[in-house]
Amino acid sequence: MEAPSSPLCFVLLFLASFVVAMAEDPYRFYTWNITFGDIYPLGVKQEGILINGQFPGPQIDAVTNDNIIINVFNNLPAPFLLSWQGIQQRRSSWQDGVYGTNCPIPPGGNFTYNMQFKDQIGSYYYFPSLAFHKAAGGYGGIRVLSRPRIPVPFDPPAGDFTILAGDWLKLNHTDLKGILDSGNDLPFPDGLLINGQGWSGNKFTVDQGKTYRFRVSNVGISTSVNIRIQGHSLLLVEVEGSHTMQTTYSSLDVHLGQSYSFLVTADQPPQDYTIVVSTRFTNPILTNTAVFHYSNSNGVRAALPPPPGPTIEIDWSLNQARSIRWNLTASGPRPNPQGSYHYGLVNTTRTMRLANSRETINGKLRYAVNSVSFIPADTPLKVADFYNIQGVFTPGSMPDNPSGGPGYLQTAVMASNMRDYVEVVFENAENQVQSWHIAGYAFWVVGMEGGPWTPASRQSYNLRDAIARYTLQVYPGSWTAIYMPLDNVGMWNVRSESWGRQYLGQQFYLRVYSPANSWRDENPIPKNALLCGRASGRKTRPL
Question: HSE-up of 117 (CA within 13 Å, CB side)?
């Protein structure tokens, strides 16, 4: 005969369930409808990508370790994906939202992204990754705050503003794609946007005497930008998820794909001041402005002229980049607490040298890395890898070093192993600034210098307080070196943030492999994963 249950057992069971529920990280749910709509950012009617009728799209506000569930309904007449710049997708490249990892959402279809902002804080953004959709909008900001009781190395600001700045062309995205497909380069941008608006289309209202945080991301496709605020200094506090040494700047360069946040104190007479964003290393210089509005100014404009910015000076930008250092005493959610992981004392196991180049292949303009110009496969690489579909890609088809040979087309995948600790040197022999992103990772930018890289260049590396970030710039005729622990299994996109170059082949995939094939190292394929190409008709997992 079964013994009667004790009331104490029920109490203990209830308490255990309560503790588990309380311990689970919060969930935030979104439903996004993707449509085309008429937009006029530079005064000319264009076909823009709207999210829930908005351009830019809705901002995601989250806290470290939050689970973000976004159900995306594609109402475009074309396949669609969103990618999440800087979100590391720990153990889950399935959620990265690029064609190498995900089958596109078909017209009229939907897909639910299920992400966790694991061990991350800081400033990020999302964007559409397929075709040339990025030139049509569809982007928005992501703000990840620290968990309560985690100390932040500055007082809470009175407000937290997002600036999504970037170059823009009046041609529709389909026309731009056609230009690239025909073997030609993109035309020069027509202007700059700030939060989807042209000249003086934005106003940021502040109270005199208070301090505000500005998060600035360069969401453009072609050019670096510089930002400055008339009569005010910028106190840099965070770069792409890392607290920085708090250094004051008159202006900041923000290269393609990058995100910075700084504090501004409204310590001037109550007037309206000008926020200026201008292109770098271009001729002509493009400019856009916004208003830094004191709430008690009555609309009086500052008599000072708008602040001039740097234009084509490479050394100015290089020296500023070198001056940005990691705050070793700040708390930060990461696998190794900020400042306690001595990245410079760990021996690297492998060196990769990556050289970008402009190529002509089959009579058309292409861009390449180590002479390899990437072409997409008929099946996303991560999907093909999971199902062991042969002939889609070959691990190791991306060489570790420049060959100096002619460019060629290849679905390039670099093979690597979990827990390798690699040195990657980006080499730029061309005459324009390059900007690179590595999905799934943050890395330490240990050095950048003019001229060719040699093993002796390591003597100049910063092995103590280099900033950890997810993008990097490489100046003309220069190199930039990073250290990166390969601790995130998956298929990860390494790409140029110059979107025309990315589209024409300046990218590849880094396959980080673990022989354990364990859920400890990598999440299984999502139950709702879309399947396409040679994986069509296969099963994911039981729902």
Answer: 30
461-514, pLDDT tens digit by residue? 999 999 999 999 999 999 999 999 999 999 999 999 999 999 999 999 999 999
Q: Strand 67-74 and strand 110-116: pairing?
A: antiparallel
542, pLDDT greater than 80: no
Residue 160, C-beta contacts closer than 8 angstroms, at least 6 positions apart: 143, 212, 213, 215
Quick one: 343 exposed, middle or buried, by C-beta within 10 A (0-12, 13-18, 19+)?
buried
216, 346, 375, 400 from 353: Cα distances, Å: 30, 19, 21, 6
How many C-alpha atoms does 284 have within 13 Å on its Cβ side? Answer: 6
Pairing, β 259-265 against β 122-128: unpaired
For 50-92, the pLDDT digits (tens) are 999 999 999 999 999 999 999 999 999 999 999 999 999 999 9
Give every strand in the sheet of 252-254, ordered side by side.
Answer: 203-206, 287-294, 272-279, 225-229, 252-254
Token pair belonging to 17: 């369930």
Per-residue pLDDT, averaged over 210-231, amounts to 98
DSSP 8-class letter at 381: H
Mean pLDDT across the chain, nearest whole number? Answer: 93
Phi, psi for 51 (deg, rounded to 5) = -115, 115
d(CA 92, CA 116): 9
Distance CA 114, CA 65 (A): 12
| Nearest in space to 105 (alpha carbons), one of 542, 529, 433, 394 | 529
